[in-house]
Amino acid sequence: MLLALHPDWQTRARAEVVEICGGRPPNADSLNKLKTLTMIIQETLRLYPPGLSVTREALQDTKLGDIYLPKGANLFIPISTLHHDILIWGPDADSFNPLRFARGVSGACHVPHAYVPFGVGARSCLGQYFAMTELKSCSLWCSPRSSSSCPRRIDTRPF
Ligand code: HEM
């Protein structure tokens, strides 16, 4: 849907796939070289994180900066809210702009730890590298063979 609304990015992704894969099946090397596709996926996971939140329980009395967490307290970390904070991402936080990831996550925002589509720390998503490989492989197969367009402007503002 986002690529249908942004044909310029659709064209860039397709050109990259054709240039790097040239009709050959993907391998670890070519998947690593797909920078535009990676940026598009990262931006999509920022705007629409499939996991809306992660939770943690304090197993002992803990101090996080100025915040005191008694043993047993539950922390609710709203991923979507972090991903749309204009103080972290700038005034275009709600816009689809894959270019913000051109210099990786640390170049995309003021607080890199606020980008957490796969969660954070020791219990972060076990399948994140597999998921990224899968997402790239699927997009890679589709992009040279099909194109999508959206006949009218639809509201894709994040929830
Ligand atoms: C786009 C795809 C995916 C997204 C956005 C996603 C996101 C997440 C998130 C947010 C968590 C919670 C992490 C935390 O609490 O810090 C999680 C946990 C987990 N994910 Fe994924 N995930 C994806 C795909 C997958 C796949 C493909 C697999 C397995 C093949 C997988 C396996 C797991 C497992 C096992 C955990 C629990 C890890 C633990 O508690 O130690 N995920 N994922």
TrEMBL record:
Cofactor(s) needed for function: heme
Molecular function as annotated in GO: heme binding; iron ion binding; monooxygenase activity; oxidoreductase activity, acting on paired donors, with incorporation or reduction of molecular oxygen
PROSITE patterns registered for this protein in UniProt: CYTOCHROME_P450
Single GO biological process annotation from the record: lipid metabolic process
Coiled-coil annotated residue ranges, if any: none
Transport among keywords: no
Transmembrane residue ranges: none
Keywords tagged on the record: Heme, Iron, Membrane, Metal-binding, Monooxygenase, Oxidoreductase, Transmembrane, Transmembrane helix
Main localization category: membrane
GO CC term, one of those recorded: membrane
Domain of life assignment: Eukaryota
Subcellular location per the Swiss-Prot or TrEMBL entry: Membrane
Sites where the protein binds heme: C125
Family according to the record: Belongs to the cytochrome P450 family.
Protein name: Cytochrome P450
